[in-house]
Amino acid sequence: MKIALHYQKGDTMIIRKRTKPLILQKYEALQARLPPNSPQYQAIKQQVELRTRGHQGELTVDHHFNILAPKFTIIQDACLTSNGQTFQIDNLIISPHSIYIIEVKNFRAPITFDTDLNQFTTDDGRKISGYKHPIAQVKAQQLKLQNWLYEHNQPNIPIYYFIAVSEPSTLINVIGDHEKISSIVQHGEHIPWKILDYEQKQKNHPTYQHQKIGHFILKHCRDFDKDILEEWGIVPEQLVPGVRCRKCNRVGMEKVKWSWICPRCGLADRQAANHSIDEYLMLVKPWLRNKEILNFLNISSRYAVSRLLKNHPNLHYSEKRRRWEKKVNGFNKRYTLRSD
């Protein structure tokens, strides 16, 4: 069946584009500031590697979905709350007939779906490892999204799901019902065509205002967040103090005139201190006092710290609480550390 796509310049409908996840930003900052001999260091390093690989896989699959953007409404990295529980969805593609959930998996080793035992495993040649079953995961997302739409008086639009394997070189094996798995699991490049095939079959079904539904969902989306210091039993005093270099991750940049210089790689960065203040707000708590940031940045001059805080673009001083706080409109809801 041949399906024609018509593109119009400026007609893209990706209403929430993927950025580096807040949790990944936190783990990267934590790894850089945690002494290598800390008991949690290797586990934190592994979290950075796993989450980086997952993010890279999502970006790879996003590229394939660009073909759908002119006609559908796409939300990347949706995070919603239903019945007091937060749930994440890698991709929501909303069409005039349906909502499609696409969960992305990035595995280099061959993967195996066993429909007889409901198992999902990988085999890297040295050992076979079991993981949470992706189909059970995406089915739970489907149910949570259905409940969320019901709670918010949204249309009872059909919801389908797929699992996109990001690496085209990853071998997908099946033990048991091949047809069941192949109807859900595909390499990322094939998912858009499965969606278009579904749409063709539903062309006589009821239609919905996909832009309106998409923007309603977008209004309620938040970045997934959690306190990773508390989760790993790490106290702020364990973190290495100093201004961190964003190029080589060395903590301990030196102030030279109007800039900060990294003694390891030579990077000159005028915004390095502001970036490290942002890390404190992200890792420790969303407010601070002069003494706390003086210790965190390892700066001896109270005047220098006071000037940094006064000039920080996203902070204001609360006379009532006698502390520095994030401006209400100073931070985008999608918290990404500045790269300028």
Automatic annotation (TrEMBL):
- Per the record, the domain of life is Bacteria
Protein name per UniProt = Nuclease-related domain-containing protein
InterPro entries the record matches: NERD, Rubredoxin_Fe_BS
Organism listed in the record: Oceanobacillus luteolus
Give a yes or no for keyword tRNA processing in this entry: no
UniProt KW keywords: Metal-binding
> Any idea where the NERD domain is?
53-168
